[in-house]
Amino acid sequence: MAISKEQIFEVADELDAAGQNPTLAAVRKALDGGSYTTISEAMKEWRAAKAADATPIQEPPPPGVMDKLSEVGAEIWGVALELANGRLASEREGLEAARLEMEASRLEAVELADQLSAELDDSRNQVASLEGVAQELRAEVDDLKAKLTTASERATTAEARSSEMELRASDLRSELDRAHREADKNRQALDRVQDAAEKAAKDHKAELAQAQGEAKQAAKEHQKEVEALRAQHSKALENAQEAKAAAQSEVERLTAATSSLEYKLAQAEEKLAVLAGEVEQAAKERDSALEAAGTAREQAAALRGRVEGLEIALSRGEKDAGSQK
Questions:
Q1: 299-324, pLDDT tens digit by residue?
Q2: What is the pTM of this model?
Q3: HEC sequence for 193-205
């Protein structure tokens, strides 16, 4: 919502009535915002109106001058007016030059204040943007931490599975040992059968040979089963080791990504702190510029009031001289 001149005049009157100096910064603070350019132009009109309302200084001619005027008339008064006009013109030129210089300083200060305000708004926008980026990075870090937790759980599961496979391999080794013991028993039984056959009679050699062949065939088949169990156990161990290595690699990758994002988050927070310091410094410079502009405007208003008072005094002097003629 745009701020009107009437609102600015009302706030300036309230500050002046309270005994406070209605500077640009004080008026803008009371209005809770507004453009420094708009406030500056309105305050220029307010100060000019206040100076016009002030009672001009009236200085009557000295008694000596009145006596001389009575004696010699308007000629001497004309010379006095000429000297006064010359002195007034000189002072007017000096005051005008000072006024122009102060006006230029005021405009420069107002422009600087607007520029600092724009830079302050930009800095605040950058701060808001960086806060958004930091929030996104925090969310990404949380997501990666969740993934890291999942990967750790998977690694734990893989380790548990590997332990189960090792237990299974141990069971297979125990079973293999049992198979070896059974084979030894079979060989011992075969040896006993051979001894009994040799002792019994030579006519039982054919039966004994058949029994030996069956025992050897059984031993071969049992050995094949043992070799198949060994191959299965070796394959299971390889699969468990591969799963464990893959899980460990995933954990390392997620750990590295988390460290990188935490480093980026730290950099963003450092940059955020630097920008906050720059914003605070810009606000201080803006307030200082506004105070300088207010002082320049006050000095210009005082000089303008003095010029107007001198012009009124000169005008009345010229009227008095005309009436004497």
A1: 878 878 887 887 787 777 767 766 66
A2: 0.31
A3: HHHHHHHHCHHHH
